[in-house]
TrEMBL record:
<dbReference type="InterPro" id="IPR050086">
    <property type="entry name" value="MetN_ABC_transporter-like"/>
</dbReference>
<dbReference type="InterPro" id="IPR003439">
    <property type="entry name" value="ABC_transporter-like_ATP-bd"/>
</dbReference>
<dbReference type="GO" id="GO:0005524">
    <property type="term" value="F:ATP binding"/>
</dbReference>
<keyword id="KW-0472">Membrane</keyword>
<dbReference type="Pfam" id="PF00005">
    <property type="entry name" value="ABC_tran"/>
</dbReference>
<dbReference type="InterPro" id="IPR030679">
    <property type="entry name" value="ABC_ATPase_HisP-typ"/>
</dbReference>
<keyword id="KW-0547">Nucleotide-binding</keyword>
<feature type="domain" description="ABC transporter">
    <location>
        <begin position="8"/>
        <end position="252"/>
    </location>
</feature>
<keyword id="KW-0067">ATP-binding</keyword>
<dbReference type="InterPro" id="IPR003593">
    <property type="entry name" value="AAA+_ATPase"/>
</dbReference>
<keyword id="KW-0813">Transport</keyword>
<keyword id="KW-1003">Cell membrane</keyword>
<protein>
    <submittedName>
        <fullName>Amino acid ABC transporter ATP-binding protein</fullName>
    </submittedName>
</protein>
<dbReference type="InterPro" id="IPR027417">
    <property type="entry name" value="P-loop_NTPase"/>
</dbReference>
<dbReference type="InterPro" id="IPR017871">
    <property type="entry name" value="ABC_transporter-like_CS"/>
</dbReference>
Length: 256
């Protein structure tokens, strides 16, 4: 059987803010259909990793590619050299990002929040984009909410709108940065259920989460990050139930 293609490839990634070295030589490949959970203590660089992968921040060193599309390549000193604007624009249509705090447009209806970018960014037909947005909202259990504005929804509903919005752009890879950390437990459950459903459909996902049971259930691979490095990674059950590294063990004892 042919190996699944690699959709995301990060090599020797380095990023500092001033003197603070936040990412120190991180390499991470994600294959089509894979679900990778990133866990680790606060301040360990998880959000910065996602922000660099999604072009919200630029790497100082290392390389980044989405499939065959090279976003940044290392020069002979390891410095990240970014491609030009047209490549970056292409790359932006290969991934979606779901934030902790939903980041919906507050004055737009739910439907417009989901259907706008496919039209404005990807130049798709408006009627068709709205049809697809309605189908995505139905899949998220939000068929009745399309005419509302975000503040009329619960946090869990808003996060599901944000997931529908990301899916509407047909990403190859979907990134989540602690998608449930702003939610109460019952609202968390409905969002995790939606993400589990996407995993069952073989959506390729990188999920930063503090929900250890969820990470163990949904992820093919768990990456434990601390102090800007990947301390340990492997199959979910191994890393979470049988960690090899003392730092991983200490973290899991603290959160579990
Ligand atoms: P995590 O998501 O694992 O909690 P972050 O990536 O948010 O970690 O942060 C890692 C480190 O980078 C922290 O020390 C944080 O203060 C610093 N940092 C993150 N973003 C910025 C920024 N935009 N400017 C300066 N420092 C930042
Ligand atoms: Mg974070």
């Amino acid at each position: 059987m042919a190996e699944n293609p690699t959709l995301l490839s990060l090599g020797n990634a380095r990023k500092s803010f001033g003197d603070n070295e936040v990412l120190r030589d991180i390499s991470l490949d994600v294959k089509k259909g894979e679900v990778v959970a990133v866990i680790g203590p606060s301040g360990g660089g998880k959000s910065t990793l996602l922000r660099c992968c999604t072009l919200l921040e630029r790497l100082d060193g290392g390389s980044l590619a989405f499939g065959d599309l090279a976003v940044a390549e290392q020069d002979e000193r390891g410095v990240a050299v970014y491609a030009g604007p047209s490549v970056l624009k292409d790359a932006r249509s290969r991934f979606g990002l779901v934030f902790q705090n939903f980041n919906l447009f507050p004055h737009w209806t739910v439907l417009r929040n989901v259907a706008d970018a496919p039209v404005a960014v990807q130049g798709r037909d408006k009627t068709e984009a709205e049809q697809e947005a309605r189908a995505l909202l139905a899949k998220m259990g939000l068929a009745a909410e399309e005419g509302k504005v975000p503040c009329e929804l619960s946090g869990g509903q808003q996060q599901r709108v944000a997931i529908a919005r990301a899916l509407a752009l047909h990403p190859d890879v979907l990134f989540f940065d602690e998608p449930t950390s702003a939610l109460d437990p019952e609202l968390t459950a409905e969002v995790l259920k939606v993400i589990r459903g996407l995993a069952a459909e073989d959506m390729t996902m990188v999920i930063v989460t503090h929900e250890m049971a969820f990470a163990r259930d949904v992820a093919d691979r768990v990456v434990f990050m601390d102090g800007g490095v990947i301390v340990e990674q492997g199959p979910a059950d191994q890393v979470i139930n049988h960690p090899r590294e003392e730092r991983t063990r200490a973290f899991l004892e603290r959160v579990g």
